[in-house]
Amino acid sequence: MEKRTLLRKQDYEFLFQKYVTTNIPGISATKVALRRVLACADFTGWSRREESGRLDRRALTRYAVGDASIFSRREYKESTASAVQILIDVSSSTELQVVYGTSRAQIFSEVASHLSKLLDECNVRFAVTAFCGDRVQRGQTVEESVIFTELKGYDESLRSTQAAIAAIPRLVDDSTPDYSALAETIKSLSRRREQRKILFVLTDADDYQVQHIQHLNEVAKKLGVVIIGIGVGRADITQCFTHSANVKSVAEVFTQSFNKLLKGLV
User: Fold this and answer.
1) Taking the model in full, what pTM does it have?
2) What mean pLDDT do residues 92-118 have?
3) CA neighbours within 13 Å on the CB side: how many for 209?
4) In three state form, how does the secondary structure of 153-167 look?
């Protein structure tokens, strides 16, 4: 994936910290909901010398002398064996303002900053990627080419990549090759070894072909990928994804949308 050189890295690091330290009601509840969604029960082995459970044939000799602890049970522990991908639309339409002085891309940057911090605190492996590119209609055929910009890789620390996440508005360019970007990301995420795979999509859904995105939403389900869509703009993203919400501000994401969506996944 392409990586772009950032200017004034310290300024963007400061901006990231400004975003994540802004007090937004609902952030704590979102973190709790995230932990529940990301938690998986991992089989760790067998607990032996139990008085109920599965018969342990090797312990029958103990039974002969009156010992009732001849059973074994599976042992599980809760862990965050999950992989999370945050995919962010940086097409030219995301430069449009939601309110005076705040663009759609800026809201994506703030949401991605808060969400990244929460995921980092949950000790989850996650990546953050922006996309734009070309989308050309040729008769009945749509041709797309995608430019992915990796802002944070799965093996990179948030500390070393926070400037890139805060600088998302600088990447705004070109069109929205939504189908190709989503298809490639779903495919890549589905191949990861983690037990649970979640894809957060931040987009303005500008010029989305709803039926095509609905198809990808179903493909993701079959591949074990859960998509959570957050839309900022005029389009109704809830027509595209099963788990999705339209918002107009960062506060609305965490006070209403995320918590409601995450609770529906537990």
Assistant:
1) 0.82
2) 94
3) 13
4) CCCCCHHHHHHHHHC
